[in-house]
Amino acid sequence: GDIVISLDKVEEQATNYGHSVTREYAFLIAHSMLHLMGYDHMKEDEKNIMRQKEENVLEKLKILR
Questions:
Q1: What is the pLDDT of residue 64?
Q2: Residues 16, 18, 22, 24: what is their CA dihedral angle, to the nearest 10 degrees?
Q3: 31 Cα distance to chain centroid
Q4: pLDDT value at position 65?
Q5: Measured between alpha carbons, how far is residue 8 from residues 14, 26, 33, 53, 62 in Å?
Q6: Could you give the CA distance from residue 27 to residue 63 in angstroms, rounded to a whole number?
Q7: For residue 46, which phi and psi values (nearest 5 degrees)?
Q8: End-to-end C-alpha distance for the chain, whole angstroms
Q9: Could you tell me if residue 64 is left (phi over 0), alpha (psi between -120 and 50 degrees) or otherwise beta?
Q10: In this predicted model, what pLDDT tens digit does every residue of 24-64 receive, in sequence order?
């Protein structure tokens, strides 16, 4: 699969969520990669698993809030 991320959207969401542009960009990449690996967040239990995996990736990269 492919990952396409809009820099305009990254900047907008970083502002809206109070993150750095770097953190938002890294989050969107991790989020997209997890989707490509089959994870989803349509159900609450799936969402919790996916969010934990996203946070684990960002922690390992030392990209914190």
A1: 85
A2: -50
A3: 4
A4: 77
A5: 10, 14, 20, 25, 24
A6: 9
A7: -65, -40
A8: 28
A9: beta
A10: 999 999 999 999 999 999 999 999 999 999 999 999 999 98
Residue among 2, 50, 46 nearest 58 (CA): 50
Tell me how crowded residue 5 is: count the other CB atoms within 10 A of its CB: 13
Question: Rounded to an integer, what distance in angstroms lies between the CA atom of residue 4 and that of residue 8?
Answer: 12
| Burial class, 7, CB count within 10 angstroms (exposed 0-12 / middle 13-18 / buried 19+) | exposed
User: Do residues 34 and 53 touch, judged by C-beta distance below 8 A?
Assistant: yes
Q: Is the separation of the CB atoms in 24 and 10 below 8 Å?
A: yes
* Rg of the chain on CA atoms, in Å: 12
The residue behind tokens 């996916």 is: 50
